[in-house]
Design brief:
By secondary structure, this protein is mostly beta strands. It has 2 helices and 13 strands. Strands 6-8-9-10-11-12-13-1-2-3-4-5-7 form a 13-stranded antiparallel β-sheet, covered by helices on one side. The N and C termini lie far apart (42 Å). 30% of the residues are buried.
């Protein structure tokens, strides 16, 4: 069960939002590179992630990501489509989960999910809408229902962050991600820093009572 809860926590970490003013998305045409350091009971893992964003003619955005354990080497690719409606970015959580679960392997099905919504421009001290989802996972022949909620989503004040890619003024955003399965709950505390014209500059996640932590940091913009 602990291994399953760890898997759920890592799936949530990977959902982080990858649009000007403070924004969750990078500007179209840019290539954004990150370094990720994850600490788990199994050890420390370093990964390198690159993202590019393309705007389609119908106003949607396609974010293509590549993750590798070696810097400068193209790794496993994935893509997500975000839409823009009524002055907001709308992220299909169902699509995100289905993509992540299929890459992890195993028998899993997303039963229901609400979208994640962000304003086109992030401002200080905003309250953002929560999101919930339910996933059925088959583990060793047993079907388990996993409920995930993303709540207490809010922005704070702006902060200056120094990264290998430069210094950025960022708006800070925090949220709680709660995974419930078989009466057990696992809470992850996630903090994001979003910069002007860049999107995500830094993400810090603490899960499983501190046994799992992940830090993603902007490394290069091309």
């Amino acid at each position: 069960m602990k291994r399953f809860m760890l898997f759920a926590a890592l799936v949530l970490c990977s959902m982080a939002a990858v649009a000007q003013e403070f924004q969750i998305m990078p500007d179209p045409g840019k290539k954004i590179s990150y370094e990720v350091n994850a600490v788990t009971p199994m050890g420390v893992t370093k990964m390198y992630v690159t993202q590019t964003l393309e705007k389609t003619e119908d106003g949607k955005y396609i974010v293509t990501s590549s993750a590798s354990t070696a810097e400068g080497v193209e790794g496993q690719k994935s893509s997500l489509t975000y839409s823009v409606a009524d002055g907001e970015y709308v992220i299909s959580v169902k699509e995100v989960l289905e993509g992540q679960l299929s890459q992890m392997g195993g028998n899993a099905e997303v039963l229901e999910a609400t979208d994640l919504v962000y304003p086109l421009t992030l401002l200080e001290n905003l309250e953002l809408k929560p999101a919930t989802m339910r996933v059925k996972v088959n583990i060793q022949g047993m079907d388990l229902d996993m409920t995930i909620s993303i709540k207490d989503r809010k922005t704070g004040t702006t902060e200056e962050l120094v990264t290998p890619a430069g210094t950025f003024q960022c708006v800070k955003m925090t949220e709680k991600q709660v995974v419930s399965v078989m009466g057990q709950e696992q809470v992850s505390e996630v903090t994001y820093w979003y910069g002007k014209g860049v999107g995500l500059v830094k993400q810090a996640t603490v899960a499983m009572g501190g046994m799992v932590s992940t830090e993603l940091l902007l490394k290069k913009i091309e």
